[in-house]
């Protein structure tokens, strides 16, 4: 797919080296937006071949975790822009990334060899996440005399885990990057407390791809999905992991249904908690009102977003969830927890309602209020436009120019 370039944010023939744990989801969407305004983009993704074993093991648990990191899961090659080049670099290791104190050095050496062997030219290194990606980026920046920018996507539990398991690596990374970008404002003091230069850390939120969704009349979307046209529909999309708080949503639904019986909750996403959540739904006799949809491709997701009355995300922790911006982007009111950067985006009850994490009663109350409220969906859509990846790219372009200016 070839995109037109726009002079307003064009930074010429700047070449980027991007170090990321995956090329899909929000990273892929961001890079596709950036590709319209820069020269070449080379993506370095490390892959542990041991993850492929999970394709042949029918068990869950740890193997469900490994399946997230197979080649098929970490790289999506559909519609890659012509100036984006993906390098999947295999590295065998046994200790998981977040606890592997040697992995940063190992990847830095692997990446250096690959860069030299393939004659990859770049002006800036942009890494996503602190360790091992950001750490390896800093090492490469020193080796190739290139400025390094790191976007810090970690939620708080992940951040505290890094500080617990390899504080020296994290502090080194934050101190030596030319610029740090945190996806929410509230956590910036944590990074400064642990060595980040206050003058080098800025806040830029995540964003969303408006091309991913298109307007579909609600009645058309519901007919397509075979949903009762007069029902009240709650939609959730998240990995089935503990930090996403699904069990609190299910408990909240049992309270909601005591007040009204026309409410149905649909949950999209996969993960190791599927059987546990199914048991919880069955135990509470909610099978008629809650349905786990599994993986949803984008074309189906578009129908669900347009069919729903509200989007609910009961997370226990977040950095700044992309799915929140996607929901707002189609004018869907957001009900969720005040974690991470969420309250920095849901700044008015015109866009959504918030409650504390792990509070089923409050979540149920907010859901009931939201279902009765008359929302201005056009106002929500217009508000969300400032968070498109195009707008985020404009902000990133300014950071690129600043660090290049400082390095000359």
UniProtKB/TrEMBL annotation:
Pfam families, A to Z: Glyco_transf_4, Glycos_transf_1
GO molecular function, a single term: glycosyltransferase activity
InterPro entries, alphabetized: Glyco_trans_1, Glyco_trans_4-like_N
Residues of the Glycosyl transferase family domain: 218-386
Transferase found in the keyword field: yes
SUPFAM superfamilies hit by this protein: UDP-Glycosyltransferase/glycogen phosphorylase
Domain Glycosyltransferase subfamily 4-like N-terminal residue range list: 92-210
The keyword Transferase appears for this protein: yes
Keywords in alphabetical order: Transferase
Protein name as catalogued: Glycosyl transferase family protein 14
Lineage: Archaea, Methanobacteriati, Methanobacteriota, Thermococci, Thermococcales
């Amino acid at each position: 797919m070839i995109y037109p370039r726009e002079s307003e944010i064009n930074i010429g023939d700047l070449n980027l080296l991007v170090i990321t744990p995956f090329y899909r989801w929000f990273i892929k969407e961001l890079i596709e937006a950036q590709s319209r305004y820069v020269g070449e983009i080379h993506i370095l993704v490390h892959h542990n071949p041991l993850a492929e074993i999970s394709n042949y093991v029918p068990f869950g648990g740890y193997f469900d975790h490994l399946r997230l990191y197979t080649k098929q899961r970490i790289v999506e090659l559909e519609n890659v822009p012509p100036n984006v080049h993906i390098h999947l670099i295999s590295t065998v290791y046994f200790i998981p990334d977040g606890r592997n104190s040697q992995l940063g050095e190992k990847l830095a050496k692997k990446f250096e060899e690959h860069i030299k062997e393939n004659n990859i030219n770049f002006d800036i290194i942009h890494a996503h996440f602190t360790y091992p990606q950001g750490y390896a980026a800093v090492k490469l920046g020193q080796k190739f005399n290139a400025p390094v920018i790191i976007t810090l996507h970690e939620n708080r539990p992940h951040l505290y885990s890094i500080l617990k398991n390899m504080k020296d690596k994290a502090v080194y990374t934050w101190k030596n990057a030319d610029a740090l970008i945190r996806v929410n404002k509230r956590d910036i003091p944590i990074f400064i407390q642990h060595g980040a230069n206050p003058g080098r850390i800025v806040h830029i939120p995540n964003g969303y791809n408006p091309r991913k969704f298109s307007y579909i009349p609600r009645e058309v979307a519901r007919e397509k999905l075979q949903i009762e046209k007069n029902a009240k529909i709650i939609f959730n999309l998240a990995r089935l992991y503990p930090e996403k708080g699904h069990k609190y949503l299910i408990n909240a639904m049992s309270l909601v249904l005591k007040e009204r019986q026309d409410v149905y909750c649909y949950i999209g996403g996969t993960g190791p908690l599927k059987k546990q959540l199914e048991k919880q739904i069955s135990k509470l006799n909610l099978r008629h009102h809650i349905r786990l949809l599994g993986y949803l491709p984008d074309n189906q997701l578009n129908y669900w977003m347009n069919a729903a009355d509200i989007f609910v995300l009961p997370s226990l922790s977040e950095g700044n969830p992309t799915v929140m911006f996607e929901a707002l982007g189609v004018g869907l009111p957001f009900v969720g927890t005040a974690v991470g950067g969420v309250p920095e985006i849901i700044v008015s009850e015109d866009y959504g309602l918030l409650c504390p994490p792990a509070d089923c009663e409050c979540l149920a109350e907010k859901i009931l209020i939201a279902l009765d409220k008359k929302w201005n969906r056009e106002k929500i859509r217009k508000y969300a436009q400032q968070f498109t990846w195009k707008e985020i790219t404009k902000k990133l372009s300014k950071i690129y120019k600043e660090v290049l200016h400082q390095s000359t």
